[in-house]
Design brief:
The protein is of the alpha/beta class and 572 residues long. It has three domains: 167 residues, Thiamin diphosphate (ThDP)-binding fold, Pyr/PP domains (Rossmann fold, 3-Layer(aba) Sandwich); 168 residues, 3-Layer(aba) Sandwich (Rossmann fold), CATH 3.40.50; 189 residues, Rossmann fold, CATH 3.40.50.970. It is built from 24 helices and 20 strands. The protein has a six-stranded parallel β-sheet, sandwiched between helices. The longest helix has 18 residues. It is globular and about 70 Å long.
Length: 572
C-alpha cells in the first residue's frame, strides 16, 4: 500500500476519529487519502497553532493522542507553540508535517535552503518532543508511527512529530513492523508501592494537619475515581494545582481550593501550614511553592509521587518520593481498616480562613462587574457544559479561583507554556472530543484576538461553544505588573493597545452576541448565552481596566503571604 494509505489506516486502528489541520502543498496527499479512506473527521482550522491547540484539547478530554497536520516551512513552525504546550503539560499528541521532496533537501550542504519552504522542523522541535522522526525512506514509516504512538502515550505523556517528504508519501511500502521498542520493567512496582504506602500511613496517623496536593497527573492516569475514593476514606483535605482544578468537584467535602501565585488565600494557608503533604501528579513548580522553598518545607513531611523520576526531589529535596504511575499506585495501595483521624479541627481551621477572605470579597470597591462573582454565576448556569476552556491572563486566574466544576466537567488551560490564544481553539477540540456537547470558552480581550479567526471554524461546524470574553480593554495581568514595578507606565498594555467591538466581530461570523457591563445585567447575559444550547454564542463582559487579580503571592515571600495584606487578628 501507499504511505498515505498506511497513515490513514494506522490512525483509524488506533482509535483516532478526529484530526485537525490547515491544508498546504506538502500535505495534500496525506489529507486527500485520509478523506478517501473515511472514518476520520477532518477539521480544517485557520491557523496551524489553532490546529495544535485543538488537538491538545481533544487529547486532554479523550486521553487518546490528538493529531494535527501541517505543511512544511511556516506550517510546521506555526505548530511549535502547541507542541511546546503539549510537552510542558504532559499531553499525548502526534504532529505530522509535510516536507519537500528528498531531492530538494539541502542535506549536509552549508546552504540555508534548497527546496521552497524547506525547514528542518525535526531539529527545531527535538527539545520539546518525546521523539521526532525525519523520514527518508518509505520503509521507516510503520516503525516510526508505532513508536511515536507508544511514546506519546506511555510514561509521562507528550508530543511526537513525524516529518514526511512529499515524494515518499506517494511511495509503496510493506506493512512489516519492527517491534524494537523497549518496554519498562515494572515487575517490582507493587513491592515499592507497598513499602511507600506503609511509611505514608504511619506518618498520616501522627499528622494533625495533613493535606493532598493534586495535579493533572491523576487525570492523565485515568485515576480520578480511585483518587476521590482514596481521599474520602482517609479524610484528606485536597488542594489543586491549576491543571488539577478538575480533579475534584467543587462541592466535594474534601475540596479546599486552588493554590499558587494567584491561589485562593485559604488554600495557600492550608498548603503553607500543613504538617504532612501528599503530592499526586504535580511537579511542585515555582508558582506552587513560591521562591522560598525553605519556608515551604518547614515543619512538614512531603510525600511526592510522579510518573517522571526527574521531577522528584527536583526544586524541593529530601521529599519521600515514589516513581510510579498513579493508576499503579492506587491499584496496589492498602488502606488499613482501623479508623483514621477525621481532621475535623483542621478542616475547621481552614474554613475560618475562607470565611474571613472569600474569593468574591478580594476585589473590594471595584467598578462594575466583579469577575469572581461572575465566574460563580457562570458556573451555576452552565451545568450542561462538558468543559471550561480558559485563556492565559487574568481570565485564567479568576476562573481557577472561582469556578464551580461538576464531577462530569473538565477544566482546560495552558499551564507550562502559558500561551495566550489557547482557549478558542481548545474549545473547538474539546467540543469534538465531547461529541458536540456544549463547551464554555473563557478568554480575555487580548488572548481572544490571537486566534479570533477560529470563529469561522465554530460557525462552519455549528459547534455549541459559549464564548465569554472578560474584557478589560487591556492586557490586564501585565498592566497589574506595571502598577507594581513600573510606576503604572502602561506601555503596550493600555497605551498602544486596543480591542475591537467583539459583538460586531461575532456577528460578522454569523454568531449571535451581546455585551454586559453592570452587575444587574449578568442574569440577562447568561440567559442569552444559554437560550439555545445547540448554537454558539458570544457574551462580551466589560470589566473595569483597573480590576486586578487578588490575592497574589508576594514575590520572595512564603506562599501564605499574599497581597493585598489585610489587617486582621490572623497572621498570614
Amino acid at each position: 500500500m501507499k504511505v498515505t494509505t498506511y497513515i490513514a489506516n494506522f490512525l483509524k486502528e488506533k482509535g483516532i476519529d478526529t484530526i485537525f489541520e490547515l491544508q498546504g502543498g506538502m500535505i495534500t496527499r496525506i489529507i486527500d487519502e485520509i478523506n478517501k479512506q473515511g472514518g476520520i473527521n477532518i477539521i480544517s482550522m485557520h491557523h496551524e497553532q489553532a490546529a495544535a491547540f485543538a488537538a491538545e484539547a481533544y487529547a486532554r478530554i479523550t486521553n487518546v493522542p490528538g493529531v494535527a497536520i501541517a505543511t512544511s516551512g511556516p506550517g510546521a513552525t506555526n505548530l511549535i507553540t502547541g507542541i511546546g504546550s503539549c510537552y510542558f503539560d504532559s499531553v499525548p499528541a502526534i504532529f505530522i508535517t509535510g516536507q519537500v521532496n528528498l531531492d530538494e533537501q539541502k542535506k549536509d550542504k552549508i546552504t540555508r535552503q534548497i527546496g521552497f519552504q524547506e525547514t528542518d522542523i525535526v531539529s527545531i522541535v527535538k527539545p520539546i518532543t518525546k521523539a521526532a522522526f525525519a523520514i527518508t525512506t518509505p520503509e521507516e514509516i510503520p516503525d516510526a508511527f508505532e513508536i511515536a504512538f507508544r511514546r506519546c502515550s506511555s510514561g509521562r505523556p507528550g508530543p511526537v512529530l513525524i516529518d514526511i517528504p512529499m515524494d515518499i508519501q506517494d511511495m509503496d511500502i510493506s506493512t512489516f513492523l519492527l517491534d524494537n521498542i523497549k518496554k519498562d520493567d515494572n515487575s517490582n512496582i507493587s513491592n515499592q508501592i507497598a513499602n511507600y504506602n506503609e511509611n505514608f500511613i504511619q506518618e498520616l496517623k501522627k499528622s494533625k494537619k495533613p493535606l493532598c496536593l493534586v495535579g493533572r497527573g491523576v487525570r492523565v492516569a485515568g485515576a480520578i475515581e480511585q483518587f476521590l475514593n482514596f481521599v474520602d476514606i482517609l479524610h484528606l483535605p485536597v488542594v489543586t494545582s491549576l491543571l488539577g482544578v478538575d480533579a475534584i468537584p467543587y462541592n466535594h467535602s474534601n475540596r479546599i481550593g486552588f493554590i499558587g501565585t494567584y491561589g485562593n488565600r485559604w488554600a495557600n494557608y492550608a498548603l503553607g501550614n500543613c504538617d504532612l503533604l501528599l503530592v499526586l501528579g504535580s511537579r511542585l513548580d515555582l508558582r506552587q511553592t513560591g521562591v522560598d522553598v525553605v519556608s515551604f518545607q518547614k515543619n512538614k513531611k512531603i510525600f511526592h509521587i510522579d510518573i517522571e523520576e526527574s521531577e522528584l526531589n527536583n526544586r524541593l529535596t529530601n521529599c519521600m518520593t515514589l516513581h510510579s504511575d498513579l493508576s499503579d499506585f492506587f491499584k496496589h495501595i492498602i488502606i488499613p481498616n482501623q479508623p483514621f483521624n477525621n481532621n475535623v479541627e483542621w478542616f475547621s481551621e481552614i474554613r475560618k480562613r475562607y470565611e474571613l477572605f472569600p474569593d468574591t470579597n478580594e476585589l473590594k470597591g471595584i467598578k462594575g462587574i466583579n469577575p469572581n462573582k461572575f465566574i460563580h454565576l457562570l458556573s451555576k448556569s452552565s451545568l450542561q457544559a462538558g468543559a471550561f476552556c480558559t485563556d492565559v491572563g487574568n481570565n485564567q486566574m479568576w476562573s481557577a479561583q472561582s469556578i464551580e466544576l461538576q464531577s462530569s466537567q473538565c477544566f482546560l488551560s495552558a499551564g507550562g507554556m502559558g500561551a495566550m490564544g489557547y482557549s478558542l481553539p481548545a474549545a473547538i477540540g474539546a467540543s469534538f472530543a465531547l461529541q458536540n456537547k456544549p463547551v464554555i470558552c473563557i478568554s480575555g480581550d487580548g488572548g481572544f484576538q490571537i486566534n479570533i479567526q477560529e470563529l469561522q471554524t465554530i460557525f462552519r461546524n455549528k459547534l455549541p461553544i459559549k464564548i465569554v470574553i472578560l474584557n478589560n480593554n487591556s492586557l490586564g495581568m501585565i498592566r497589574q505588573f506595571q502598577d507594581a514595578y513600573f510606576d503604572s507606565c502602561y506601555k503596550s498594555t493600555v497605551w498602544g493597545y486596543s480591542a475591537p467591538d467583539f459583538v460586531k466581530v461575532a456577528q460578522a461570523y454569523n454568531i449571535e452576541a451581546s455585551s454586559i457591563e453592570n452587575s444587574d445585567e449578568i442574569e440577562i447575559g447568561l440567559s442569552k448565552l444559554w437560550k439555545n444550547k445547540e448554537t454558539p454564542y458570544l457574551l462580551n463582559v466589560i470589566i473595569d481596566v483597573h480590576t486586578n487579580v487578588y490575592p497574589k503571592m508576594m514575590y520572595g515571600s512564603p506562599i501564605t503571604k499574599m497581597e493585598p495584606e489585610f489587617i486582621t487578628p490572623i497572621n498570614y
